Every structure is written in structure tokens, then in C-alpha cells.
Amino acid sequence: MDLGIRGKTALVCAASKGLGRGCAFSLAREGVNLVITARGREVLEKTAQEIRSATNVRVTTVVGDITTDEGRRAALAACPAPDILVNNAGGPPTGDFRDWDRATWIKALDANMLTPIELIKATVDGMIARKFGRIVNITSTSVKAPIPALGLSNGARTGLTGFIAGLARQTAKHNVTINNLLPGSFLTDRTRQTIAGFAKAAGLTEDQAAAERLKTIPAGRLGDPAEFGEACAYLCSAQASYVTGQNFLIDGGAYPGTF
């Protein structure tokens, strides 16, 4: 299927590896030119070159922390008028809420709620004026089923979800859609970190903790970031113009609910 976005430009945050990389690759295969960001120059440049070689699209790299004012300014200077915005940032650490002070909470909110809102604020009016825009926020299954050890993520990402629910209904008439992708357990560094945290809390080895995680996933495996990227590309497509304000769970069936 031709997704109808060839020649568009996307700003993909935290795209050097993991889910962000998967989204960048999938968009590039559809002919979308990219501006990708990450904190580490070496891995970011390697990813950019791999995308260029595989797809021949234009890829611009911006080294910086997207969760900071400076990082966002640099990204927006390189891509002031994206047609597509993929918001993504590393999740906050695991732990017990009793150990988190105000500064810890503010850092989590800055990264996983306020940063995507700031980027949307900077780009959505241009999308409205051009009568095309696709915004995808990478959040977490924790907004659907809170994860006890991820209280910081539960709180910050749920706040973003509530904000998006209202905004997405305001922009849809301008052909600007805003949706959230909720990843379960994928083959990423983040999953490895959460498994390590669970192992420590439960007194298990990391291999034992990983085996326990797989028992909770009906698909019997961790997800591939490339699969996640394809879902992102669809939400950014011309065909998805009637889809907005939705939370797409991609977790191999782990969430047990009907709704």
C-alpha cells in the first residue's frame, strides 16, 4: 500500500535506536525525509547512514537531549515545519514512590509529558495552516494498565494522554491527527532496564525475570521495533486521516482487558 506521504518531512525524536529508530526506518521506506534526534552522536550518525543507504531519503541529524530547551530548539531549527512529528523520549527510572522527591517528579514530567506538548505547540499551527499533519506520541502500556514499579511513567504519560485526548478533537477538522502508540515489551534497552529492575526487586536473575515476562505475553516473544515502526507509519498515512485521539496498544496480547 502506498501510504501517500512520499516527500513529506518528519521530525522523529530519540531515533537512534529502539522504537524511535523503528519509526524512522518505516517512514523513510515510505519516502519521508527525516530529521532525527538523539543524545549520542556516534549511534545517531550510524542510524542515519543506514537509513540513507536503505531508502535514499534525506536524513538530517540533530545531536541533543530533546527533553531540554536547548535540545528542542536545535531540533526545531533543523525542522521548523514538519509534516509529521513523532514524539519519543526515554522513560524515567523504576522505583518506589517513597524515594522520589519533587525534582525527580519534575524531571519525569518534563521528559514524558511537557516535552511532547512543547513540540506540538511549536509545530501544530503550521500543520493546520498547510492542512496536513500527523503527530504520534510514543507512550507506554502503563497508561492502560499501570505498572507498579513505573510510577513516574504511569503519572507523566497518563497526563500526556489526557491532554492529547482534548487537543486531538480540535485539530482533526484541519486534517491534523494526533494519536498515541502504547508499546508493551519490545527488544529495546528500556525493556532490558525494566527487566533488570524487576529482577532486583523480586530477587531473581535477569534471565529468570525475562522468562517471567514472556509468560505474560500471549505472543510468546518480545516485539520487534520494526513492527512498531510500521504501525507508526500507518498512523502518519493519508489513509489514517479519520483516526485521531486514539491509544494504540501494541503488546502481543499482554493487556487482558476487552477495552
Protein architecture, described:
It is a single chain. 47% of the residues lie in helices and 14% in strands. It contains 8 helices and 7 strands; from the N terminus they run E-H-E-H-E-H-E-H-E-H-E-H-H-H-E. Strands 3-2-1-4-5-6-7 form a 7-stranded parallel β-sheet, with helices on both faces. It is globular and about 55 Å long.
User: How many DSSP H or I helices?
Assistant: 8
Report the helical percentage: 40-55%
Give a quick account of the main beta sheet: strands, pairing sense, barrel closure.
7 strands, parallel
What is the total tally of β strands?
A: 7
- Which percent band covers the strand fraction? 5-15%
* SS class: alpha/beta
SSE pattern: EHEHEHEHEHEHHHE
Q: What's the Cα radius of gyration?
A: 18 Å
Low-confidence stretches: none
- How many angstroms separate the termini? 29 Å
Shape: globular
Strand order of the largest sheet: 3-2-1-4-5-6-7
Q: Mean pLDDT, nearest integer?
A: 95
